[in-house]
Structures are given as C-alpha cells and as structure tokens.
Amino acid sequence: VPQWVPDGYILQYVHVLDQSTDTVVSAELMNSEKYIFFSIIIHDKEAYLSHEKDANNITIVELAGIQHYIMSNIDSQAVTWVTGKVECSIFTNCLKEELHSVLKSIYKAEE
What three-state secondary structure class fits 16? Predict the structure, then answer.
C-alpha cells in the first residue's frame, strides 16, 4: 500500500475479484483527468509478467531486493513487479517522477 500519492487524488473504487485460479485486487484514484490504477493479482501458481508497452526502453529499479519494471505505453506509464505468487502493477498518466514517488512510498513502511 503506498504511503504517498500526489495531492488531489480521490479514491474511486476498490474491487476484489476471486477467480478460480487467482484473486485480483484493484483500486483507482483520480484527480480530474489524471488517474492512478493499482492492480494486485495473487496467483495459485508462480506469477509471471506480461504487459503491453510502446517502443521506449524499460527502466529497471530495484527496491527491497525486488526488480520493478517501469515502462511507457503511449500516453501513460506503468510499473510492474512480481514477488512469489503476487503480481503487482501501477498504471498512471501522472508524471513519471510522481510514479517513482508512489512506488518508493510502498516500501517506506518497511524502513
């Protein structure tokens, strides 16, 4: 759970979907035309990553010993990572610097 999001964002919803092979938890925050979407998928088996992206390079950031893959897709950014059976993603059209700050704030509680 992030400890920080940019000012002005309001929680729109939190959904939990329990499927036969995994559980999906999603939440969306909005600020006018800007959004931050969180997705956590808890798989029954080992998790894997598969996301659509544009031709720009992927940036890898390591936090808490976990590799986080930051990528763009046209007018938005995403960061995604896997830990065990859990696949986590953040999708947003906010500034890339704000995405980095949201991601880093997830691990602040562990410091």
Answer: strand
Residue pLDDT, tens place only, 87-100: 999 999 998 899 99
CB 9 within 8 A of CB 30: yes
Provide long-range contacts, Cβ within 8 A and 24+ apart, for 16-22: 21/45
- Rounded to whole angstroms, how far apart are CA atoms 64 and 85? 17
What letter represents residue 68's amino acid?
H
User: pTM value?
Assistant: 0.87
The total of other beta-carbon atoms located within 10 Å of residue 94's CB is: 20
Picking from 70, 73, 74, the residue whose alpha carbon sits closest to that of residue 98 is 70
Please check whether residue 93 is in contact with residue 35, taking contact to mean a CB–CB distance below 8 angstroms: yes
C-alpha span between 67 and 74 (Å, rounded): 23
Look-up: residue for tokens 């947003």?
Answer: 92
Contact yes or no for 92/98 (Cβ under 8 A): yes
